[in-house]
Amino acid sequence: MNYNYPNGKKPQQKSINRANLGMTLESDIEVTNQYYLEKGIAVIYKKPTPVQVVSVSYPARNKAKITEAYYKTPSTTDFNGIYRGFYIDFDAKETKSKTSIPLKNIHEHQIEHLKRITDAGGIGFLIVYFQAYGEYYYLPFDVLYDHYQDSLKDGRKSIAYDTFKQEAFLVKFGFNPRLDYLKVIDEYVIPGLLKARACR
Amino acid sequence: MNYNYPNGKKPQQKSINRANLGMTLESDIEVTNQYYLEKGIAVIYKKPTPVQVVSVSYPARNKAKITEAYYKTPSTTDFNGIYRGFYIDFDAKETKSKTSIPLKNIHEHQIEHLKRITDAGGIGFLIVYFQAYGEYYYLPFDVLYDHYQDSLKDGRKSIAYDTFKQEAFLVKFGFNPRLDYLKVIDEYVIPGLLKARACR
What we know:
homodimer, alpha+beta, Trna Endonuclease, Chain: A, domain 1, disordered N terminus
């Protein structure tokens, strides 16, 4: 993708929104990852959606045609890769609600997976899009996990928007990169990890 | 998977071979990864095979049936994950040849991908199975890359078995873990990476 502006300058940020780009959260992240890849910043991919293939026919040479298959539930998250030597792992979620994101949007196996990743020294998080506000948040796994564990005790079924305002990090939406979530990692995550890393 | 031996001891290694387990290289690696996961050693998954879905029908509630789809060429490698804080990325290849593995088995985009990964501080490699010898090798990416670049100059189309004997590491085939490739990483890869890692 290549943007050329008449005066060599990007338009004001406020003129950009999802509505006029007409893309989905997932494709916004994919475009961002493509930018990171091309610039040599990070290598992060979306995993293919797992499919259970039941039958295949061979109507033409060299091209198998799948004629019956079903979508499977992914056992992990959608995105992973490497940035500045760190293993990165996350999923993207969105909600129409103005007040919270339902915990049922976040599968238990995804929480287990992200727990394993962060325990192993990786960087795990969610990108959460509040459609009503046009706001994208980087929700660190430890914040997610605290709220998830609380919900097991008190039966609460969602994470409040206020929690995002207080404990998550806003990700700016722009042209290129579209959703610069690595900026959050640079500023708020890696400094702590480098400090904790023992020099063996 | 759970093995119980009458005398509490594993049978001799030499009694184990692929023939009597009847599995493929890919599934041997998946069984190994499952072992690593359950023991809390590493979190490494095979990526799903990418499929281009053309049409879907909805014969029953909640279960979409894919009625036309095609396999796509993966843009990366098959396996990735995290071990001891390091990003791990590899592919599995096998050959019937007694003398070499053809370079055409290793796609150019996979070499590019592994180059990016190792440049970013990740651990990239191939697991290569020589069927004729029943031997599995851990081929470090830098060795692969040297031979790949030589091939662009001299037109050679394969990597010799002798190269594996000299520059790759044998991976032992056993019961559990089936193919303990992380042992190679522990012994030969991580010490060098830790030494190179600056304490910032």
